[in-house]
Amino acid sequence: MSQTSRTEFLVTSRGTSRELDAFVVAVRFSRDGRRAGFALGDGTVRLATVGVTSEWISAAAHDGSVLDFAADPTGDGFISAGDDGKLNRVGADGTVSNVGDFGMKWVEHVATHTLDKGKGLIAASAGKVVRLYDQAGQILKELIHPSTVTGLVFDGKGKRIGASHYNGASLWFVAAKTDTPRKLEWKGSHTGIAIHPEGEAVVTAMQENALHGWKLPNGEHMRMSGYPAKTVSLSFTRNGKWMASSGADAMVLWPFFGGGPMGKAPLELAGGDGIICNQVASNPRDEIVAGGFADGLVVVADIGSSRILPVVPPDHGPISALAWSPDGTQLAIGTETGFAAIVDFAKR
Amino acid sequence: MADINTQVPVTVLTGYLGAGKTTLLNRILTENHGRKYAVVINEFGELGVDNDLVVDSDEEVFEMNNGCICCTVRGDLIRIVGGLMKRRDKFDGIIIETTGLANPAPVAQTFFVDDTVKAKTRLDAIVTVVDAKHLPARLADSHEAADQIAFADVIVLNKTDLVTPEELDAVEATIRGINRFAIIHRTQRASLPIAQVLDRGAFDLSRILAMHPDFLEGDDDHEHNEDISSMSFEVEKPIDPEKFNAWIGVLLQDKGADLLRTKGILHYANEDRRFAFQAVHMIADGDFIGPVKEGDPKNSRLVFIGRNLNRPQLRRGFEGCAAD
Prior knowledge:
The complex is a heterodimer of chains A (348) and B (324). Chain A is mainly β. Chain A has a domain at 1-144: Methylamine Dehydrogenase, Chain H (7 Propeller), CATH 2.130.10. In chain A, 1% of the residues lie in helices and 51% in strands. The radius of gyration of chain A is 19 Å and the shape is globular. The two termini of chain A are 26 Å apart. Chain B folds into 2 domains: 8-204, 3-Layer(aba) Sandwich (Rossmann fold), CATH 3.40.50; 226-319, 2-Layer Sandwich (Hypothetical Protein Yjia, Chain: A,domain 2). Chain B is 31% helix and 28% strand. In chain B, 44% of the residues are buried. Chain B starts with 7 loop residues before the first strand and ends in a 5-residue tail after the last helix. Chain A binds chain B through residues 23, 25, 41-42, 64-65, 67, 83, 104-106, 108, 127-128, 147-148, 150, 166-167, 187-189, 206-208, 229-230, and chain B through 43, 53-56, 58, 60, 62-66, 73, 75-76, 78-80, 83, 85-88, 114-116.
């Protein structure tokens, strides 16, 4: 990749970028895909309108750092979680309003899910507690875990919520009358979670540079190892055929078909430079996956052909955030040193 | 390799309930030093802490799945360090206060085991506050009190006004029996210049070499009531790194549960830089540090603090690592 000339990187010809001077903790697109929100380590959220080169709006969302960030499940803005103990709503115009208060505790994770008829769900965790809210910010339930929640995710239909923690993960039914979780147990520290889009498996990242999985509904164990670094980013492709992961010097994609991933070798894309992949993001429409590396390189790979498209050159700091727009035409990118970009992949 | 200049120093504050830990912490935070610290406290802390950036955390210890039974790590610290690094420019150091009954090993091991924590921070010192009056009782009724002393780089021997000079000398001798390498400060109301506590670089080990050998080689034969003791060994010839790694690897594997802390400065054959080695139980780490100053002796030294230390065996083992 080092041989690629700068002009061949898509960000040059099809990108909009800014230097934001703070760690980009997360980036998300709004539900309507019109805005990208960059959540920063200085507590602000920067809002960019897709396809418009106007000023980006800066919203002072938290007194501290944003820790996690998600699309507003019903509005056109975002929900942000901060180390000031607040769960806030950031409107498309930059107005900040409070959804929840967790006191002294860091609000480390937030996940949202859009239901029909204008309804939606917001889940946020602080320590061992996950609070589930409706779209208006009304608390629906409080779910207590055996140790601090390290990852939070809704399943594809918004029926279940999964939380990773020490010694496994818990799966809760959102609509259950009595709250007892399905406990998925495996000894050790689990540090992140993903649910297969068709609900066929739960996968967690682990402290020991490995992934653990449970097939559903039978709970059969899966172990995916061989990573030189910790996996911080997991992303299933649209139909759940593949699960992309970070933590190796390539994007590592495990096959969730034909009996996989157990006993199957993963597909490794964009490897060979010895640089660790920090972030992966599967496209919501097509079988393509974006990968961001520790040297700042961003590529997009076609899973079928293994063809690699260079997107951002390794010039702007380690990649810390990646997200596709809901229609899969825009890729938003953030780095540890505050570089932020939106690249247009729409056909012209 | 991690860059020491960008690594945030971390000070770990241990000590029994009522020893004066929070008093010392508040003293550090309120002293006018123009520096900002992120403070990690436990929600069951004794007193309020007066600081802008206080992180409230549960001490969540877990066992690593690496086949090493004594490798326990504080998962909460891994997350907190990760979170704090996103706001890096806003503070100069991290102070972690542990609960009174905490075993210091998981905190220390966290700084060896997790790559991100290792890259972004460095353990500056473990500071243990002890109560001069109540230490003998604490040592008698729990092993955590001895462990906290064994792990310490700096010991704040507090509440000296509550004991007689004779009692104070006796309590200091007891501490020395467990850990002869820590620096001891006698205080009342935890009052001491904060430079004695922060930015010690105690974990970078150079101090080990600076200590006078005679002082280090006290009377080991005199056994105290405590089963923890400390020993140091010296080799004048350059060390063969392969021999050393083979020996220390087996030693830590076999005796790791008893070896609370192992630290050393090694001079390898045909290498100008010194190698700093350290381990907590079975988990070891090492890094090259600066070269020896012109004219300084090129001896290697290794320090053990732990239970059931076998002096002749350790000496023979270390001496066997000399290059041919």
